[in-house]
Every structure is written in C-alpha cells, then in structure tokens.
Amino acid sequence: MTQFTPSFHQIAPIPNPTMNKNQIPRTRPWPAGFPTSKALTNFGDANCMEQLLIHCANAIETNDVTLAQQILWVLNNIAPPDGDSNQRLASSFLRALTARAAKTGTCNMLVAVAAADTHNNDDLTMDTHKFSVIELANFVDLTPWHRFGFTAANAAVLEATEGFSVIHIVDLSLTHCMQIPTLIDAVASRHDVPPLIKLTVADASFRDIPPMLDLSYDELGAKLVNFARSRNVVMEFRVVSSSYQDGFAGLIEHLRVQQQHLLYTGEPRPSEALVINCHMMLHYIPDETLSGIHETDLTSFLYDSSSAVTSTSSLRSLFLKSLRGLDPTVVILVDEDANLTSNNLVCRLRSAFNYLWIPYDTVDTFLPRGSKQRQWYEADIGWKIENVIAHEGVQRVERVEPKNRWEQRMKNASFQAVAFSEDSVAEVKAMLDEHAAGWGLKKEDEHIVLTWKGHNVVFASAWLPA
Question: If you write DSSP's letter for every residue of 133-162 in order, what string do you get?
C-alpha cells in the first residue's frame, strides 16, 4: 500500500450526485480532538483508527453526510481489509458503520460512496461458512478461545458427577456440541462401567449465528451417539425446540415436566446428575434493554404463581432463577469477558473495538494470510462486529456481558461459585501449552480467565445451588 499523509485540504467531501454542477461542495473543519495529519502518519496506530471510527459513528448518528464522507475517505485508505491486524479490525468496523447507515436511512450517500471506495476483492469475501462436523471440530481446535472453556468445563463436570450412574447434560453451546466428544472420552477413561450420558440440546434460532453447521441436530446427535458407542459409553440424545429469544422457555418447561413426571408417577429415580453447560450462549438471551418484549409469553414457563413479572424484569436473570428451581448438580458458565450491552452506539463501539482486536491479533499467529480457515475465522468476527454496530432492538443479539455482571446474576439467583481444582487448572494450562505463547491463564476469585497478552478474553466459572 502506498503511504500517504492526508491533510485537511486533501479531504474534500465527495460531491453529491444530486448537487447542481455549479455548486461547490462545502468542507468543514475537523471536530475537536480529530487526529491531525501528523497523527495519521502511523497507519498501524489503533488509537487513531478508533477515534476515526468514533467520529464516523457520530457523523452517521447526526446525519452529517459531509463529515461522514470525509472520514470514510480516510478510513478506506488507511484500513484495507487485507492489511495488518489493526487495519483489518478497522475495516470490519467501517463495513458495520456503513451497514448501519443503510439500515437507519441516515447518510444515504454513504452506501454508494463506500461501494465505490472500499477495496473490493473477491478473495476477501466475508460470507460466513457452514461447517461440516469435521471442519468445525478442527476449527475450534485452532485456538484456546473455545478449548479453554471445554477443558475447564469437562474437568468440573467430572468432579461434580463422581458416583452418579446417570449424567444428564443440558448443552447450551455456541459450538454445536463440539465439547462433548472430549467429555465422552474422559468419562470412558475414568470408569470401568461408564455412566449413562443423556444429552439434551436446544435447537431453534441459533442456526444463523456463526459458527454455523451444515447438518441438522438430529444428524449431529446420531454421530455423537455412534461416537459414544465406539467408546463403550451409552448415550441418549434429545433435541428440544427452544430459543434464546424467549429465555429458553421451551427447554425449561421440558426439563421441569421431566422432573415432575418422575415425582408424580413414583418411579424410582436413578442416581442422576443434572449438568447445565452454558458455553457462550447465555449472552444471546435478551438483556434489560429488551425487557417487556416477551414477558407475557414467558409467565407460564419461567415462573411459578408466586413470581412477579415486572416491566424491568431481565430475561437473563429470570432464566437463571428458573435453572435454580431445577436444582442442578452443577452449572458451568463460560463466556467472553467484555461489555457490549450499552444502548449508546459510541460506547458500544469503544468496548467492541477494545475487545475484538484480540481475535484479529491472534489469527496472525496460527493461520496464514489467504487461507480459507482464516477467511472463515475473520468472517465470523466481522459478523459479530456488524451485529453489535449495525443493528438495534431484537436484531442486535451480540449482547456480551462481563464476568462480574454474570457473577452477580448467579448470586442473585441463589447459586454459589465453586473453585476449580488444582488438577483442573493444570489441565487447562497443559492445553494452553499447545498454542501460541501469548495465551495465559489467571485466577480471579473462584473463576479462571483466559488471557491474550495480559488482556482478559474468556472466563470460566462453576456454580452450585446455594
């Protein structure tokens, strides 16, 4: 890329095609705090790109077409989609801001301008990929982003379910049960007569959230049952139609009916452990900013007659309280340690930019430029960025919350945290040794946190009924 240093007189707004040919497009001064041409000389400066994106967001929100076009011109030249990690990050945010302008109807010219100016390259398509089971298994093994949670969760589950003849796992996982084969292996290796494993999954509305799978959950279940059989483990697989959009109400009702059936019929209950495994899925349950949308539909599912549904109820908190009512043996909660819930676009952009640089930075350590896997990986990140920036209301589903907020939710729902054992921590550390040197692990209270170059990435926590 040819290096240049744009100055104020060079960044004239792009003429409006509806403008009279005798009119001269009007320039305007940069807003206070806007990076100078000297600051723009360092094209890899993430702080500079963040400020440009923030000013662009503000221009779009205030329908300031001229300023938005000026900033767009700069960003298109300093943030190519095939550049370094900071440039690719900024390019994804720029695409998301352009999509927001198109969706909200503001800065109508911005879409046409971006189409003309953005670096177009057919090899850089950002379409999300539908994985086969083998592809997805290999894909999640590339990085500790998911393996960290898998390893920590499996170790905690094995300890919590020791002595049970049946282990019922309710798997709410973004990665479509990719954790389960390693758990089956661990169960098989620890028992002469392995316990029966019941696996229940919710299949409704995550089919369009990456990473996406190219087969149905019934087909996936058959593969898992066959894999378990090859390890001399008996597995039952059940799919429940249930959605994160209503707080998994259908799943909660299904589990409650199962428990009541055994109680009412008087059938002898086996020594069954109920494990709720939540892997990067609970943040899709609508948070407080969407309260009131589904409350009427949830009353019969999530609450008993003594519970009050108010206009300020949070589906996330109510879901956790409904889990507590099922008296699970253990609840595993693994999620990204960031805050993407703000109603303010600029605040959300700042938080996302200062968190999502991490996957762009890490990808350079394990995937070569131009590889299909790298395109798939960055397309998934780009999907997340667009959802956080371009969408609002029920369409904005990427509402990640930080560890401390989930911790408070769990305590409010009458769960208590349990620390991971030293053996569990040692297993996680051994897994991290298989990856790049930048990955690390730290303990925060009873929880453990995956880090990249010292920055929090993903947390893992285990909870028992208080």
Answer: HHHHHHHHTTSHHHHHHHHHHHHHHHHHTT
Q: pTM score, two decimals?
A: 0.86
Domain containing residue 227: CATH number: 3.40.50
**Spatial distance between the Cα atoms of 28 and 6, rounded to a whole number of angstroms:** 15
Residues 54 and 155 in one domain: no
Residues 184 and 306 in one domain: yes
Taking 3-state DSSP, the helix, strand and coil percentages for the chain, each rounded to the nearest 5, stand at 50, 15, 35
* Cα(77)–Cα(105) distance, integer angstroms: 25
As for how many domains the chain has, the answer is 2
Q: How far is Cα of residue 246 from the mean position of the Cα atoms in its chain? A: 18
Neighbouring CB atoms inside 10 A of 417's CB total 17
Amino acid occupying residue 355: Y
For residue 91, the enclosing domain spans 8-121+345-393
Please tell me whether residues 350 and 229 are part of one structural domain. Answer: no
Closest CA to 209 of 283, 263, 142, 265: 283
Residue 125: burial class (beta carbons within 10 Å; 0-12, 13-18, 19+) = exposed
Would 177 be classed as within a structural domain?
yes
Q: Are residues 360 and 229 in the same domain?
A: no
User: pLDDT-derived band of residue 302, with 50, 70 and 90 as boundaries?
Assistant: very low
pLDDT in tens, 236-285: 999 999 999 999 999 999 999 988 876 665 555 568 999 999 999 999 99
10 Å Cβ neighbour count for 325?
Answer: 18
Name the H helices within 401-454. Answer: 403-412, 422-432
- Looking at the fold, whether 155 and 47 belong to one and the same domain comes out as no
Candidates 250, 241, 242; CA nearest to 301 is: 250
Instruction: Among 360, 393, 426, identify where a domain stops.
Output: 393
Q: What's the average model confidence in pLDDT over 35-54?
A: 70
Burial of residue 233 (CB within 10 Å: 0-12, 13-18, 19+) is buried
Q: What is the mean pLDDT of residues 294-314?
A: 46
438/451 Cα distance (integer angstroms): 8
